[in-house]
Amino acid sequence: MAAAPVSLSGRFKGSFAYFTIKDRLPQILTRVIDTLHRHKNEFFEKHGEKGVEAEKRAISFLSKLRNELQTDKPMIPLNDELPDTPIWNQYLEYQRNVSNGNGQPSWFQSPWLYVECYMYRRIHEALIHNPPIDDFDPFMEAKIQSFFEAQQAIIAVCTYLQELLKNIEDLNENQLKEEFFKLLQVSLWGNRCDLSISAGEDNSQKSNLLQSLNDFKSFILVDDMENLWSLLLNSKKRTTTKESITRVDIILDNAGFELITDLVLANFLSSSKLATEVHFHGKYIPWFVSDTTKHDFNWTLKQLQSANHMWMSRCGMNWEGNLKKGVWVYHDHMFWTLPHEFSSMAQVAPDLYAELQKSSVIIFKGDLNYRKLTGDRKWEFTVPFHQALNKFHPAPLCSIRTLKAEIQFCLTIRLSKCTPSGGSQMQSRREMCLHAAAGGACMWQLLPPPTTPAAESEVLQSHRVGIPAK
Ligand SMILES: O=P(O)(O)OC[C@H]1O[C@](O)(CO)[C@@H](O)[C@@H]1O
Ligand SMILES: [Mn+2]
């Protein structure tokens, strides 16, 4: 197998990586600094002068970080006492070794994936170093705001789910499949509501997504829902004896509306018995602005339970009940907030890899997970997705993602529409389909574990398309 290509990086001027590091990451850092400024009085009320002193130190730390970023300074080791610090500093050493004498690892010379993850870990370091504000989540305000901005959309999906659950036992297989496809698409489009792409600007779902699925369908050129359905249905049919289980793992992405869509999907999987267990994987620290932490997950359930809307509170109660019964499990392994490509998981986090091997299917939500699945490298678009996974396949896996970065894979082509940029299409298998560019798109990809060469050639169908307006 050919060596993996170089990583996407800010050293490629004009790339989305370059734009992100040059413009977007400084914007996100500035927003964090502003947030700390705006919480000064709160820190004083809670902690007195100590709180204000801590806020000042954190701001000076973050201002220095922003200057390092903007002037392409070398990356420096972390020096807090967190359990992941040695792993981060080993990774910096690794980057030094692979930089092939291109000098020190730095913001515009090192892999985009590394420097972007490193920025969020340095933001966390700025807080950790400054008790008593060390437990402050600088993105919490934005996550809460996006939850409340999406109230109507949340009410709509919770209402839809509760109505559906009333007669879910009476649905035949086709009706069940139809509902499954709907809720998968709701979960897909929920991924548009990410605050890192918007650099923290409001990006919440305002309208009832269920009413737009048909309009949005044309933005999905090809999808693997059928394969995902067959995999789950076959597993359900095998789950006749109580010993065998169908476990679905959802590697979560953004809090707010997207998290609700993932919980709704999980509730449907449990109630339809397509899954006997659902495992959720969140982030260990505040991450990429809107990614879900354990606090966000629990806050969301509590918020729903106390909502003055019957179906929202019913959802919140049911979901808390599923966690208490153990049919739902929440995990937040620190691997998800390391810079590593997922192909390193077996070495770096063998416990997590072994946990995922218990899964019947792993659903990876969002763009960052997709980038880590494929190493965020300059792959040719015709490279098999499986090849890009670089032997990472603990279980059958599926990536559900709205495309926010250049990387993508096209393996087979079906009839597809022109991209917004009018990119040319080929209607033949294994031909490059669309010229990828930074922009929006959505895609489904399902990869069963490669048992035979034929399995490798099985399907991943992916196309990029424009993201529909909310
Ligand atoms: O929340 P998601 O879907 O992972 O999107 C986050 C993505 O947005 C970006 O910040 C912008 O593309 C990426 O760098 C990152 O992978
Ligand atoms: Mn995210």
UniProtKB/TrEMBL annotation:
One of its GO terms (molecular function) is metal ion binding. Subfamily III proteins have a conserved RTxK motif about 40-50 residues from the C-terminus; the threonine may be replaced by serine or cysteine. It comes from the Eukaryota. The gene is ARMT1. This is Sugar phosphate phosphatase. Keywords: Hydrolase, Manganese, Metal-binding, Methyltransferase, Nickel, S-adenosyl-L-methionine, Transferase. It catalyses: beta-D-fructose 1-phosphate + H2O = D-fructose + phosphate; beta-D-fructose 6-phosphate = dihydroxyacetone + D-glyceraldehyde 3-phosphate; L-glutamyl-[protein] + S-adenosyl-L-methionine = [protein]-L-glutamate 5-O-methyl ester + S-adenosyl-L-homocysteine. Residues 20-408 form the Damage-control phosphatase ARMT1-like metal-binding domain. It holds the Pfam family ARMT1-like_dom. It comes from Alligator mississippiensis.
